[in-house]
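Why do we care about 3D structure at all? Because function follows from shape, and shape follows, mostly, from sequence. That is the central idea of this module. The next example makes it concrete: a single protein chain, its amino acid sequence, and then its structure expressed as tokens.
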Amino acid sequence: MSAFEQALASIGWINAESAHDSFLFDLFRELKSKELEPLSLSELQRETLVAQQFNARTQGYACSFPDARIFVKLEVGALMALLGPEIHLIDLTIAEGARNQGHGSELFRTITALGVPVTLSVFAENPARRLYSRLGFRETSSTGMHVEMRYE
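And the structure:
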């Protein structure tokens, strides 16, 4: 077990396995349902669209980041990361009911305590951007839509 895995395990995050697929899908569905609310879709249309988007994202990540690892903390969220000389955080989702309870801060304090550089990309308007800045991440570049951040 790597130092990263050990650190995450110390706060309840574990390697995702196929048994966690339904949790990952439910987490994605929760996130997407807010985005789809303004559309007048039937329940079947909404579920079909969410499933298609989930599958496309899963396949896209697998192609773009074949060595990425997924970690989960049930009831809380999921994290996808590339591990190496530095850590690149690809995706983090905290469940709606677990937000603003310190889970993100705890996760980032644990990761940054490893003493290796950490990079991530965040939507410019994502409220989590404030958390990352507060925890010591600095902005390294911006496309207008995304902001690249780094912790050293």
